[in-house]
């Protein structure tokens, strides 16, 4: 049965999402390398919000810039769209500038990112850490599991590929908390691509053979985990995530957003279920997308938009007059 919301996902929002991420990326690109993370993020947030409010939908931000008292706009629970109360009800997860530090320092893989689904389709993940593991398409179901050791997961992926563990490349955030993980992987001879930020791009990189990345491992932001899961739903792949809590305040925040099983290992379809759309536009050059370029009186953008129900992936090159 096709719902009103999924009809809108079909008709309108697939390509409109690119316009939204393009707006955020273009706004942030004006501050690339300027060393001001907050200004770049604020520019992206304002541009994305304006673009979302032009769309015919009754949208709710379920993953955004923080709670109402932490963010002036695109906060969790904020209503967006031009048809609030009468249009199709859409849940939205967003990161107007994934990799604020990357943007401020002109590093690689800064993105404007957005995922949408029918109401109830995206997990309301609190702003806490999430333990994550992901692989691209083509592996037997259940090849990865957070209840196994990193060594066991690497050996399973290597066996499925028909190679030795030393031929596997893992992507890991370069953080002190990952010292033990990195040491264990290196003891196996695994190649490690360390990234400073941008773990949405890191997870998605497992789906692109050109990146040579086989597996993503380690902890990062839970909201970014939901965004990455939405992308993997669209193109295939496997993802497991488990929320990590450092204190009672974080546990209380999870309960506020309806998370009751604090030790649950989430599967891909539990983080992003039903029909969903994922879109991203490059702010700076990276493994997934080229960044915004200024050439004379025009700007060029590169975006990707994916849809789960059809498995369609569209690569969109945009040229915008300044």
TrEMBL record:
SUPFAM superfamilies: Carbohydrate phosphatase
One Pfam family it belongs to: FBPase_glpX
InterPro entries: FBPase_class-2/SBPase
Assigned keywords, A-Z: Carbohydrate metabolism, Hydrolase, Manganese, Metal-binding
GO MF: fructose 1,6-bisphosphate 1-phosphatase activity
Residues annotated as signal peptide: none
NCBIfam families to which the protein is assigned, alphabetical: glpX (TIGR00330)
Stated name of the protein: Fructose-1,6-bisphosphatase
Source organism (scientific name): Sphingomonas hylomeconis
Annotated gene: glpX
